[in-house]
Queue: 3 jobs
Job 1
Amino acid sequence: MKKNDLILIFLVAAIAVGALIWMQASKEPEADRWAVIESYGELVEVIPITESTEREIRIGDEAVYNLVIISQGEVNMIESDCPDQICVETKSASEIGDMIVCLPHQVIVYITDQPVEE
């Protein structure tokens, strides 16, 4: 092999490695956790949780409601019109098995490692 052949092989390999690194870095991370929201025993929504997930979900109507925010890999119930406000005061749910419950409105939000089918 000549010197130019080695330079060409090195150049092609460097471009291939660079393209592979760029494709991996630009790929959306796959969710390893899902937020499952249920209301009155019915599945409302299943949301994959990643660090880039930003969602606001309103459950209920004008008279009876809960407001759930998913941001920076955490789930919070930030607002509810229930009398005791325990669900709003509950800490963020971020780990598998964490749960936020509003008993007066029968809303359950929990984190799982398996996507639940709607």
Job 2
Amino acid sequence: MNLYNYIPHPRIEARKSSGPPKTDDVRLGINGKIGALITAAVGTMWAAYIFFFLTLVSLPATITSHNAVLIVQWIAQTFLQLVLLPIIIVGQNIQGRASDKRAIETYQDAEAILHECQQLQQHLATQDDVLVNMMGRVETMLAKLGTT
């Protein structure tokens, strides 16, 4: 006689085969693959260095113009956009890797908690067996004494 029948949640088996989700697991179509390729190329510090030197090409003409509007445009539209874009992508890539690491650790923590819960289930099942055995003995003793 079992006092409790443990039925594991179906997600437990699914988690064993899937593992933790990571950024690289995302399926991409052709446009996504092209975008990821361009982002990988532009999102490097080498691209930032190249863009920096590229912005220097128009700097002398901008400065010699003595036009404040052109100088502000050069800073905002040429320098900041070209140089900061790859640096921001580098930062996002670093944050993405950190996020993947956190996801893996959270997954491993959840696995450990699941294992502990399964151990508790086994412990409770053992206690149920002892209780059923003790109840059987008590019933046997009561039957021998003629009491119910």
Job 3
Amino acid sequence: MTTHTVCRTDEIAVGAMKAFTVAGHKLVVYHLQDGFFATQGSCTHVFAPLAKGKIIDGCKVQCPFHRARFDIRSGEVVDWANFPPGIQVLNVVRGEKALKTYPVTVAGNEVRVEI
């Protein structure tokens, strides 16, 4: 694994997120109350860009397409895709799958992600 500097700490406000491509990996870096976290950049349901979603409850990311929700810290599914009505039919084929997470460290004012 290699550590990559992705941004400065002041580039992402608390409660915000930003998409990056690092070493060929699309990911999202989140700045939560308790630090910085990173996940894969697309939802595991139908691969929607998570950076176009929103952070809810201070620690979950909600997919912009079908409202799947994931714990940002662990990547675990909190709520699987449930919108619009009827999407559950697709869920038979696209079962729940957690997000890949990446270790994040802060050194000085640099946010670093391990890939």
